[in-house]
Amino acid sequence: MTKKKITQHPLFLPLVCVLLVLAVNVIYDISQGNGIFNFFITTIENGVLQGRLITILNRGSEVAILAIGMTLVVSASAGTDISVGSVMSLCASFCCMLVAGYGVSAVSSPEEFSMPLIVGILGALLMGCLCGAFNGTLVAYLNIQPMVATLILWSAARAIGLLLCNNLIVYVRVPEYGIFGGYIGFLPTPILIAAVCILAVSLVLKKTAMGMYIQSVGINKKASRIAGLNSRRIIFICYLLCGLCAGIAGLVNSSRITSADSNNIGLNMELDAILAVALGGNSLGGGKFNLAGSIIGAYTIQAITTTMYNLGISSAVTPVFKAVVVIVIVAIQAPPVRIWFQKLRAQNHKEVARV
Amino acid sequence: MNPENTLKQRKEINGNTLLLLITIVLFVVLYAGGCIAYSGKGFTNLQTFLNILISNAGLICVACGMTCVMLTGGIDISVGSLVALDCMLLAYGMGNWGIGAPAMCLIVLVVGLVFGFVQGFCVGYLQIQPFIVTMAGMFFARGMTAVISTDQLSITAETSQTFYDWANFRIYLPFGGVANRQGKIIMPYFRIGVVVAILILILIFLVLRYTKFGRSLYAVGGSEQSAAMMGLDVKKTKLKAYVLSSFLCSIGGICYCLNTQSASVAQASGLEMDAIASSVIGGTLLTGGVGNVIGSFFGVLINGTISSIVQTNGKLASAWPNILTAALLCFFIVLQSIFAFLKEKKK
């Protein structure tokens, strides 16, 4: 019986995935003649932490931040927000436009921001909230299917970003802008930002009733309304938060390259975020959620991506593997497959009883 | 029959056709606006209209398939990537494997069928949300395109003479010629892709209206439970809808390739958005059960007119068609939701 309990733990699936990825890495290292623990070696070079584990944690920050918002959205509205990648790109473009003083002037005064950095940051976060509010209004107040509603911004946000940047890649030549994608002391900043986001959200969910409200709305919208919850507002807030998370992730991503590359920032990121939620053992049908699972899922995906680069697989091919993983995970969760598994188990029991 | 009943019926029909009517009026207004604003740049020529058809022949096929899926209440966002995969298969297959154009087209169609079958199985029999399935399909197809080749390939006469001839074959109209700068009169023409697209459009229109399969699509979209109670096989109908969508998408991919004569990983990105927008603008309800391919056809024309106007203007950024299409989609979705709200209030 104890064995069964382990498999039914909500964090079972994500942890198994992590172990699988680690195993692949270790086996690869051994086959290459490196040390067994090559993967885990973390050193301090040039005053900053280095190592493959750190790289995964660092690069996985954006997906982790997105996964927070996506988890809430999936839980409350039983749908996914597919606009997050595009919104990331738009927020990054907007921030760079503000900070670089509409593109070209950044070249003439490379030493200074044309606006204080804080204005750019607030602008990006505000833009994220605005996009989230747009999605939220469509979903919560106009009763449109979440994925179709977010499809609008999925297409438009990136295009608006391109329009803001005049089809150019806007460079910010002030070194301070790179701090969000760089290092504070010896720690990579993205890890810190992700940690702060995760802590803040989980504190809010633990200390207030918000987490319970979201789950109850996701399980039954009508019943929650009758019980006195403002279902629409709760769904709206979830989308708003998801937009905000996309804004933060966009900021981090653009800070890494100290520029706004509208065409490439957040590309295919929505798949990663949804995959993180699914990998975390959350049902994509809404209802109960597990934030810790999503976060572990996010880093697992980054580990998969990094491992693939490590194995020399082209970055254009990685979507194939991710798509297959998504389908397999979602298929396992599908009701007919579950019923089939249950029947199989029941049959086994019967046979055991007969023996 | 009492008069109250007939009145109610007429009103209901009006509600559904109103969206289609708005679409047609919008197209006429847009096109007339383009004609007035850019009459000096040749927008009034018949060829401009035919060019919209030529460059959107693939999209018409794709939108027909999309409409069929959306009638069942589902959605298929894998179409853009599937078109890219089709183009890449065609270009790479003819160029590097040395397979003839007809055989390669057949392979592409089979790939479409298999792709549609897997997606349809996941949606119909495993009851996974269509959006998740087709999104995975989208990334899968795009990734497979990259697996075949990450280069920009173009189809020339050396790649395949047959395909090149197909792509450059012109069908001239007997009227409406315009003199060019040298004083030579050039008759307006269209290409093979347009013929295929129009044939598909008529075929799907007939299928949806007069066959058992077509009617069961509407029934499943209207209410799955009622359809099941009526004795329809809901799962099978959904499976068929997705197979049809991917198959039409493959035909659309061939038409698309005939027009562009090239293939790359980034090709046809955003095509799914155009197809969905066309269907929605054409009056197909996202909840399923209501819609028509004729509406989708006009949706495609509106799409084409927008990008044609942006191109003719020449000064607008290339991002504008994307934004305008999204804005139109948003407008029509909100309109649909308002209609649904009013209908519920009446009850």
Task: Provide a compact summary of the structure.
Chain A is mainly alpha-helical and 355 residues long. Chain A has helices at 2-8, 12-31, 52-59, 61-77, 84-99, 105-108, 117-141, 146-164, 189-207, 210-219, 221-226, 231-256, 269-279, 291-310, 318-333, 335-354, and strands spanning 43-45, 48-50, 170-171, 183-184, 187-188, 259-260. Chain A has one domain (12-40, 48-322).
What does this structure look like?
The complex is a heterodimer of chains A (355) and B (347). Chain A has 355 residues and is mainly alpha-helical. Chain A has one domain (12-40, 48-322). Chain A contains 16 helices and six strands. Chain A has helices at residues 2-8, 12-31, 52-59, 61-77, 84-99, 105-108, 117-141, 146-164, 189-207, 210-219, 221-226, 231-256, 269-279, 291-310, 318-333, 335-354, and strands at residues 43-45, 48-50, 170-171, 183-184, 187-188, 259-260. In chain A, the strands form three sheets. A two-stranded antiparallel sheet of chain A has the order 1-2. A two-stranded antiparallel sheet of chain A has the order 3-6. Chain A is globular, with a radius of gyration of 22 Å. Residues 104-108 of chain A have low confidence and may be disordered. Chain B is mostly helical and 347 residues long. Chain B has a single domain (23-34, 44-339), classed as Orthogonal Bundle (ABC transporter involved in vitamin B12 uptake, BtuC). Chain B is 73% helix and 4% strand. Chain B is built from 14 helices and six strands. Chain B has a two-stranded antiparallel sheet with strand order 1-6. A two-stranded antiparallel sheet of chain B has the order 2-5. In chain B, a hairpin with a 5-residue loop joins β3 (178-179) and β4 (185-186). In chain B, α5 runs antiparallel to α6. The longest helix of chain B has 35 residues, at 3-37. At the A-B interface, α8, α15 and α16 of A face α6 and α14 of B.
